Amino acid sequence: PLEMSAKKPVPFLRQVVSVRKKVHRDPRFDDLSGEYKPEIFMKTYSFLDSIKKQEKEMVQKQLKKCRNTEQKEKLQQLLNRMTQQEQAQKKQQKLRERELSLKRQQRELAKQGKKPFFLKKSEKRKLELAEKYAELKRSGKLESFLTKKRKRNALKDKRRLPSQKNS
Predict the structure, then answer these.
(1) What family classification does the UniProt entry report for this protein (predicted)?
(2) What is the C-alpha to C-alpha distance for residues 107 and 101, in angstroms, rounded to an integer?
């Protein structure tokens, strides 16, 4: 820094040497980090699935050995969360595969010289629902699913009706 005389008063707007401010960047939102592609991400970090599987088995073993009720409850919650995450990941993977297959079909049709046809969101939802029902039918859980759905809808209808008070 520049030495200043103690006899002379310091100027109000003095010249200060500027220091370059360090710019922090978040790789999740930065363009320099590239574009997020789920397929590439899943391939790159596929080794995590095996680690998660090992961790889940470890938690299950701990749950069997555990005697403390509070600890057991925490472990059970952890196991449930792990299972739910696994199911969600499988669901996402199925959805991605379905999207890719639709894209491939469109490309094939385009190669044959036909005009591309893109499904609406509602049509995609209908196809998804039909697939879900077919899967439930294959596994034999369709009836229980439908009875639960009927009960849920009956409860909703009951709530919507005006209350019947005898007065």
Answers:
(1) Belongs to the RRP36 family.
(2) 10
pLDDT at site 63: 93
Lookup result for tokens 């939802």: 125
Mean residue pLDDT across the chain: 89
- Which domain, by its residues, includes 110? 38-115
Q: Residue 98 CB: number of other CB atoms within 10 A?
A: 14
CA 106 – CA 112 distance, rounded (Å): 10
pTM > 0.85: no
CB burial of 104-141 (b: ≥16 within 10 Å; e: otherwise) equals eeeeeeeeeeeeeeeeeeeeeeeeeeeeeeeeeeeeee
| Cα four-point dihedral sign 47, 50, 56, 61 | negative
Alpha helices in 14-68 (DSSP H): 38-44, 47-65
Q: Does residue 155 lie within any of the structural domains? A: no
Q: Is pLDDT larger for residue 17 or for residue 44?
A: 44
The pLDDT assigned to 147 comes to 95
Domain presence at residue 86: yes
Structure-block tokens of residue 53:
């599987």
Residue 147 lies inside a defined structural domain of this protein: no
Q: What is the DSSP letter of 8?
A: S
How many structural domains are present in the chain? Answer: 1
**pLDDT tens digit sequence for 67-96:** 999 999 999 999 999 999 999 999 898 888
> What is the residue type of 98?
R
